[in-house]
Write a structure and sequence with these properties.
The structure is a homodimer of 170-residue chains. In chain A, 64% of the residues lie in helices and 8% in strands. With 170 residues, the first copy, chain A, is mainly alpha-helical. Chain A has two domains: 47 residues; 81 residues, Winged helix-like DNA-binding domain superfamily/Winged helix DNA-binding domain (Arc Repressor Mutant, subunit A). The first copy, chain A, has a three-stranded antiparallel beta sheet with strand order 1-3-2. In chain A, strand 2 and strand 3 form a beta hairpin. In chain A, helix 1 packs antiparallel against helix 2. The longest helix of chain A has 28 residues. The N terminus of chain A is likely disordered. Chains A and B meet through helix 1, helix 2, helix 3, helix 4 and helix 6 of A and helix 1, helix 2, helix 3, helix 4 and helix 6 of B.
Chain lengths: 170, 170
């Protein structure tokens, strides 16, 4: 990814350099937290680049992949829009725009309950199932089976992220 | 944040549930990596919500804050656009759009070297310095000094994220 072509005043690790500057400015209590937050932001960017590269041939983003994956897991392949937002932990407007795009791609269709017309369901199409199964195989092989850490460290990282989620109210 | 108001079929932890389904589908080698990647994506979202809430009164995003912070650290408050991209590990077009917005906010100005007119420098204004120092105090107090993990775990999480960055070529 970024090989930092900055010449002879190249900084090897911008986050370590930021940590040094934070301490030099007397922000001692904040330096480690800054480095952790900034590191997570950077790792998120690098992981999404890997995920997006795998999903690009399927014309999917990770957000739309997650919607399809959830629907493929659901009984009868359908979930209400409301419930999908809470399961995916995203804002209703994000679900709406993802599903609208997936519908244009003919991977999902929207249905309305005849007994309660306020309830809109997203329903995966046969083509959507084919696409999400193929994309899952590739994501598993190319990202999730080689996430960049040894198996024990993957578990440690997940536990720490789970603690961070809990601290933020998840 | 999302309190998951899904009723009596509420799923307590969507990521744990996804991990269970991954294993149930026989994707055993990928389940832990999937949980780690998805957890990092979620933590990134939660941390950025906290950071954005602090920066909103300053009309800054984290990306624009990082540009301002870098310029305030730099000698004479100036960095070339090219070098800024490599230090912030972002695409040149992202730097250009962030700096253009900061210039409209009168927090940054763009200068051209008279000796080499191809080199464009971003330079922080006095007002930019005031804003970034105030924003840094608030970010330190409200996010970086209480990142959501105990001090030793902050270091462990940072080390794991550093290893993940290295594995991805950082």
């Amino acid at each position: 990814m970024s090989s930092n072509p900055a010449g002879d005043d190249e900084i090897r690790d911008p986050i370590r350099e930021a940590h040094r500057l934070w301490e030099a400015h007397g922000w001692l209590e904040a330096a480690n937290g800054m480095a952790m937050v900034t590191s997570i932001v950077r790792v998120h960017q690098l992981l999404l680049e890997r995920v997006d590269a795998v999903l690009k041939p399927y014309d999917l983003t990770f957000a739309r992949y997650e919607v399809l994956r959830l629907l493929a897991f659901a009984s009868n392949g359908r979930v209400s829009m409301t419930r999908m937002g809470s399961l995916l932990q995203v804002h209703p407007t994000s679900v709406t725009s993802a599903v609208a795009r997936l519908e244009r791609q003919e991977l999902v269709e929207r249905l309305r309950r005849t007994t309660d017309r306020r309830v809109v369901l997203a329903s995966i199409t046969d083509h959507g199932r084919e696409v999400v199964e193929a994309a899952t195989v590739r994501l598993n092989e190319e990202v999730f089976e080689q996430p960049g850490l040894a198996p024990a460290e993957v578990l440690t990282a997940t536990r720490l992220m789970t603690d961070l989620r809990a601290a933020a109210g998840d």
